[in-house]
């Protein structure tokens, strides 16, 4: 697949102007990221809240101009990232969060507030975790973070899965981050800032590190990265209940954790351990997500529950934590991750795209309440 030419896209951005001809798109926003998938050119423009209202009416004309200018494109989809007003969630009700309890942000079951320093300029830190590997935790973390950006929050994504850093591939980030005054500058793509140890080493290099080295790396990702002003820092945790989880809880004030599980019993056992671990560390559990909840045949739309169904919802009710929704098992999720564009960007109207957007809407609503309460919205 031929990659679109950045210069061509930027030329189109300069040519499309407001009705009164006072500004071009490049004066109202900047090219954040782009990719071609199945003939459709996906473009993300970064802007702020004030300029988004002027940009929004220009998007149809911009999409038509992009199709005409970019060879091989049969369609175009342009989104505004970072501060676009959020539309209401369009996923079915179960995907929007089937639990009956509101998200518990800011204190665990014991009612104590999270302790520890926050990275400079960061409002809250939340973790995406799982009791075991292979349940789609990193894919969930990436789509949640980008989805929160589409909800209008300023978002950072930190890959704490040191032994298996997949964030660079999933975000389509190449090359090493810039170093400025001894601090790492996280790359900005799809509306969020992201940092991973995988950006500092070769992709095929094995991270054969003992616990102290892992803990040191997590500490550096928190303290040596210039995250800037963020509403929320989403941390993609490694699987399990070990050194990395303890280090994060000790080094920063975690506002909450999201547990990702698949429906089968063996995965739910590990999810239960994850919930228990965070509760013992006095970190509120925001809820449980059931990933790979069901498979829909792309040809006939027949639904098959390959790993069972509803186990995570039942487990969440048993443990007294919210159930945040179901994510289907679809080839498009894997394909979009391999191509470097989260499914909320590559196929926002697909069942998976809608489910992740609904998850982001649920979590984002709770985060806004907490940020407004703390009066730290950026």
UniProtKB/TrEMBL annotation:
<keyword id="KW-0378">Hydrolase</keyword>
<feature type="region of interest" description="Disordered">
    <location>
        <begin position="85"/>
        <end position="107"/>
    </location>
</feature>
<dbReference type="GO" id="GO:0016226">
    <property type="term" value="P:iron-sulfur cluster assembly"/>
</dbReference>
<keyword id="KW-0547">Nucleotide-binding</keyword>
<dbReference type="InterPro" id="IPR027417">
    <property type="entry name" value="P-loop_NTPase"/>
</dbReference>
<dbReference type="InterPro" id="IPR002744">
    <property type="entry name" value="MIP18-like"/>
</dbReference>
<dbReference type="InterPro" id="IPR033756">
    <property type="entry name" value="YlxH/NBP35"/>
</dbReference>
<comment type="similarity">
    <text>In the C-terminal section; belongs to the Mrp/NBP35 ATP-binding proteins family.</text>
</comment>
<dbReference type="GO" id="GO:0140663">
    <property type="term" value="F:ATP-dependent FeS chaperone activity"/>
</dbReference>
<feature type="domain" description="MIP18 family-like">
    <location>
        <begin position="6"/>
        <end position="78"/>
    </location>
</feature>
<keyword id="KW-0479">Metal-binding</keyword>
<dbReference type="GO" id="GO:0016887">
    <property type="term" value="F:ATP hydrolysis activity"/>
</dbReference>
<dbReference type="GO" id="GO:0051539">
    <property type="term" value="F:4 iron, 4 sulfur cluster binding"/>
</dbReference>
<comment type="subunit">
    <text>Homodimer.</text>
</comment>
<dbReference type="InterPro" id="IPR019591">
    <property type="entry name" value="Mrp/NBP35_ATP-bd"/>
</dbReference>
<dbReference type="InterPro" id="IPR034904">
    <property type="entry name" value="FSCA_dom_sf"/>
</dbReference>
<dbReference type="InterPro" id="IPR000808">
    <property type="entry name" value="Mrp-like_CS"/>
</dbReference>
<feature type="binding site">
    <location>
        <begin position="131"/>
        <end position="138"/>
    </location>
    <ligand>
        <name>ATP</name>
    </ligand>
</feature>
<keyword id="KW-0411">Iron-sulfur</keyword>
<dbReference type="GO" id="GO:0005524">
    <property type="term" value="F:ATP binding"/>
</dbReference>
<feature type="compositionally biased region" description="Gly residues">
    <location>
        <begin position="96"/>
        <end position="107"/>
    </location>
</feature>
<dbReference type="InterPro" id="IPR044304">
    <property type="entry name" value="NUBPL-like"/>
</dbReference>
<protein>
    <recommendedName>
        <fullName>Iron-sulfur cluster carrier protein</fullName>
    </recommendedName>
</protein>
<keyword id="KW-0067">ATP-binding</keyword>
<comment type="similarity">
    <text>In the N-terminal section; belongs to the MIP18 family.</text>
</comment>
<keyword id="KW-0408">Iron</keyword>
<dbReference type="Pfam" id="PF10609">
    <property type="entry name" value="ParA"/>
</dbReference>
<dbReference type="Pfam" id="PF01883">
    <property type="entry name" value="FeS_assembly_P"/>
</dbReference>
<comment type="function">
    <text>Binds and transfers iron-sulfur (Fe-S) clusters to target apoproteins. Can hydrolyze ATP.</text>
</comment>
<dbReference type="GO" id="GO:0046872">
    <property type="term" value="F:metal ion binding"/>
</dbReference>
């Amino acid at each position: 697949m031929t990659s679109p030419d950045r210069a061509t896209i930027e030329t189109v951005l300069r040519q499309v102007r407001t009705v009164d001809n006072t500004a071009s798109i490049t004066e109202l926003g900047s090219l954040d990221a782009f990719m071609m998938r199945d003939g459709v050119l996906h473009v993300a423009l970064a802007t702020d809240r004030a300029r988004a209202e002027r940009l929004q009416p220009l998007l149809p004309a911009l999409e038509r101009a992009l199709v005409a200018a970019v060879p091989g494109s049969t369609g175009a989809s342009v989104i505004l990232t970072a501060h676009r007003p959020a539309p209401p969630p369009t996923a079915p009700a179960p995907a929007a969060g089937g639990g009956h309890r509101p998200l518990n942000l800011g204190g665990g079951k014991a009612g104590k507030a999270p302790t520890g320093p926050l990275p400079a300029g960061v409002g809250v830190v939340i973790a995406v975790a799982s009791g075991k590997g292979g349940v789609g935790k990193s894919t969930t973390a990436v789509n949640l973070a980008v989805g929160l950006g589409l909800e209008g929050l300023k978002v950072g994504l930190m890959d704490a899965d040191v032994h298996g850093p997949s964030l660079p591939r999933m975000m389509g980030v190449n090359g090493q981050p810039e170093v400025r005054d001894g601090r790492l500058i996280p790359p900005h793509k799809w509306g969020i800032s992201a940092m991973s140890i995988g950006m500092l080493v070769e992709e095929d290099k094995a991270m054969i590190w003992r616990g102290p080295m892992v803990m040191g790396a997590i500490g550096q990702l928190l303290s040596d990265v210039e995250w800037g002003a963020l509403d929320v820092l989403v941390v993609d945790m490694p699987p399990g209940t070990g050194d990395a989880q303890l280090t994060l809880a000790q080094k920063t004030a975690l506002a909450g954790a999201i547990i990702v599980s698949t429906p089968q019993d063996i995965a739910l056992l590990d999810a239960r351990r994850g919930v228990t671990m965070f509760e013992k560390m006095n970190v509120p559990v925001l809820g449980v997500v059931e990933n790979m909840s069901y498979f829909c045949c792309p040809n006939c739309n027949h639904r098959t529950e390959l790993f069972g169904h509803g186990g995570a919802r039942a487990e969440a009710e048993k443990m007294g934590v919210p159930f945040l929704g179901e994510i289907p098992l679809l080839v498009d999720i894997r394909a979009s991750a391999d191509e470097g564009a989260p499914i909320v960007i590559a196929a926002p109207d697909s069942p998976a795209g809608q489910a992740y957007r609904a998850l982001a809407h649920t979590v984002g609503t709770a985060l806004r309440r907490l940020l407004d309460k703390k009066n730290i919205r950026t």
